[in-house]
Queue: 2 jobs
Job 1
Amino acid sequence: MKKILLLLTYTTLLTFAEIPKEFSYVKEKIPTIELELRYASTNNFVGEVIDGYLAPRAILTTKATLALAKVQKELESFGLGLKIFDGYRPQRAVNHFVRWGRNLANKKMKQEYYPNVQKRNLFKEGYIAKRSGHSRGSTVDLTIIDLKTKEELDMGSSFDFFGKESWVHYADITSQQRANRMLLNQVMTKYGFRAYAQEWWHFTLDNEPYKKRYFDFEVK
């Protein structure tokens, strides 16, 4: 009887540790894609590893991953590729952002990520919310890189910069920066993703499989 209980417990833990079957590790499906999972590091607007990120691994729904593979294939024909900053995001990570946003005294990363925005306004201006499309598994933050040098194309602002400079159609950038944003936007929308007007790096699969379900399994 004890052996049966131990086996059941082990099986339950194993199942809990696995990602849902409708999800994939992006790197396993797209080996040439680059990853820089910011929330699994201290290089982000909070300045610390975010709850729920136990490893720098990109996870998306399999449907979104397969669509992204088509984007990568097209870019590769021009010597370019994708770099992912964030994919699936556990709800506990979103909760971490909310706690950080309410702690007005913590402004450690202000100069780098939100120099022109008052922290007390981050919720009102839509930079932080209690729910994120990332937790549905089909939203991804990314940019384009040169496959040979691994250098990012210049998009006119850094990832996760809070300000109008990050808006897709922000005009006060160079013609090359606008062209780079346009390239990213066009190739992503071509394969079924929709852009978010206030973040040039943010895309959601149009026909995402989970429109109302938010997940909280860990990234590991």
Job 2
Amino acid sequence: MKYSNQPMGHPMVWLASFALISVMAINSTSAQAQQAPPRQKIDSIVALVDDDIILRSELDLAIKGIVDRIRQQGGDLPPKHLLEKQVLERLIVRRLQLQRAFQTGIRISDTDIDQAMLRLAQQNKLSLMQMRQVIEADGESFVEFRQNIGEEMMTDRLRQRVVNGMDPITETEIDILLASDQFSSGEYNISHILIALPEGATPQQIAEQESKANNVYQQLQEGLDFASAAISYSESQEALEGGLVGWRDLNSVPVVFSDAIKHLRAGQFTVPIRSPAGFHIVRVNDYRDQSQVMATEYHARHIMIEVNDLIGPREAMKQIRSIHKLLNDGQDFETLARDYSDDISSANLGGDMGWFAPQAYGERMEQTLAALKDGEVSEPFQTENGWHIIERLGKREKDITDEAQRNAARNNLRQQKMDIEIERFLQQMRDEAFVEIRLPT
């Protein structure tokens, strides 16, 4: 069989040992073989994935990363053969996603990766050079780290294509959810174990997986750490993160789960729950109420000189400074806004922008408003749209709980649909692929 796309950096190494014969003629002739050098370990194939392969060295490296993280978090390591099986399955699904992404025309340029690396460094308050030093100090290859970022971007874009095909959330769906007993403003931090069922599972397969789920549940009752159980047995996307799903409210998980967990306290877990995907055990790690949501709003008016093909940034700056001087000389803000502002939505209103959330017009506008007092006029400042002068007229705290709940309901419905669609897509892709696992039994 011919294999394509063999990962670089893992060549097959073949060693030959040669005996060196030395002839000594004293009274007789004898041959002595020089000791052969120690035999190096040969890299081997642990899985065939369609026309691609996964090497032992790749699996060992991935296992090391998982083991290091578990130890850092103080968790218990699962049995080696279970961890090996779980990590290999993740590598297989990842390889299938990369193949599908490539086949469907998804490409990630070096520029895309560079920008992602820069954002990652900035989020950690590091320069690119400092981030590289940190990565290499941990014994990792910066080149492989960069390659992993690119692959992660490819799989993200593939999944985005999957969810982009979903039907949009309707206002009627939101109304129904808000009016139902299922809607909750509280949030649960949950973890999850999935004992999956193949598509079109036979009664025997269902019985076997149910027995496996009950066995895991029994071990949990006897004190097995939930995260360790997830790493050992779960077949969900979060398995190697200890099954951690994170904060969700009851509206963003299937009803069969919400009914089971809404009466649980932190640290408690459900009995195995059957769904079309398989058998689930869900643990509540923590709970928090969603209290009243308040938001700051400003009332302001402004004058804007737009930067465009006719007026460059320098000319726009000159004009706004001239207008600012007129204001300082006592001319009326409202009149100057009508005469000079390029913001057609507010110019005829004397520059009045009404009440708005500070982030609605960008970070620079938000920072400028926050630094002003009511009735105070700013110095000229620049945004991506042009040059501005703004007068803060008022500030208030507004109760947006209803609006926030509606947005939460919309996001939760979408998240629920996304989870189902992505899980279905990955399962179907895995079922349709040719996969041959070559781990020792």
